[in-house]
Amino acid sequence: MRRDNLKAAVLGKDGRTSAIERCLLESHRVTRPLLQFSEWQGRQATENILRRAREEKPDFVIVGPEQPLAEGIVDALQELGIPCVGPIRSLARLESSKAFTRNLLSKHGIPGNPQYQVFSSTNGIREYLNQLGSYVVKPDGLTGGKGVKLSGAHLFSTHEALGYCEELFRLGHPAVVIEEKLDGEEFSLQSFCDGTHVVDMVVVQDHKRAGEGDTGPNTGGMGSYSCEDHSLPFLRDSQVRDASAINAAVAGALLKETGHKFKGRSSRRNCTRSRSLFERGQPSANTSFRMVIRRTRSKVRGST
Predict the structure, then answer these.
(1) Which of 2, 178, 184, 211 could join 271 via S-S bond, C-beta 3.0 to 4.6 A?
(2) Cα 125–chain centre separation
(3) Nearest partner of 280 among 152, 179, 156, 143, judged by Cα
């Protein structure tokens, strides 16, 4: 049943949640002011969120950052009877564990994986790096979009790559994912998902490297763009359809794997040359999401 005067809450404080808040405030169905949970790091912050949620009784909560999702904030809010936009802890592994995501696609025969291997220790890593030649090293865990390193850009020898893997294990990551390096233009397709239905947003391309000319370390996002037609100049329609099909297939695989429906945003990052790759279940750079929100809102308005 359609309801008005909804009390909405947003958890997080970054560019992504700012974009979400602006969109909520444009809706005549949402009451003002919004309930904001801007402090979420640490046990005390989590307890404060749950206390305020019991007192304020929001009709729903939108969770922005990945970390509270991985720590189970949605599970706790749902126990209070509060619906959330964001996956429970088990499903949040799609973002918090690259190993889980790669293995999920492999197990369910979903296209998009590059050649990869998951390591829980340094045993065998040197040999696999030499086998691939060009590679990507990814920590199995959340790093704010800054943990991925590429051969030839950040790592210039097998010795350096092995040293980075050792560092990741010292930092407490349970595993390291090593993949073949894919070259080509990347784009991201995010989709709204209720666990059964997948509704695509517009495609964007974001830029992660901090310096000019794709130099410097990776960041959570240095900007993004899409074209007036809500596409990108190098894209074919078939590539967007393929990305959409994979987002839908992953939602189905998660339901089979865990028995729970993914509710939130799924996202596919794609490479238009060589094989494509899927990553980021809740995700994606803040700059990309701000762009997507603006473009999707324009697209919806234009079709009504």
Answers:
(1) 184
(2) 26
(3) 143
End-to-end CA, the chain:
22
If you write DSSP's letter for every residue of 55-71 in order, what string do you get?
Answer: HH--SEEEE--HHHHHT
- pLDDT 10s digits, 232-272: 999 999 999 999 999 999 999 999 999 999 988 766 666 66
Closest CA to 101 of 147, 136, 140, 144: 140
**pTM metric for this prediction:** 0.83
Check if the beta carbon of residue 260 is closer than 8 Å to that of residue 119: no
Superfamily of structural domain 184-303: ATP-grasp fold, B domain (3.30.470.20)
204 and 225 Cβ atoms separated by less than 8 Å? yes
Q: Can you name the residues that pair with 63 across neighbouring β-strands?
A: 11
The class (CATH top level) of 115-180 is: alpha beta
- Of 145 and 197, the structure prediction assigns the larger pLDDT to 197
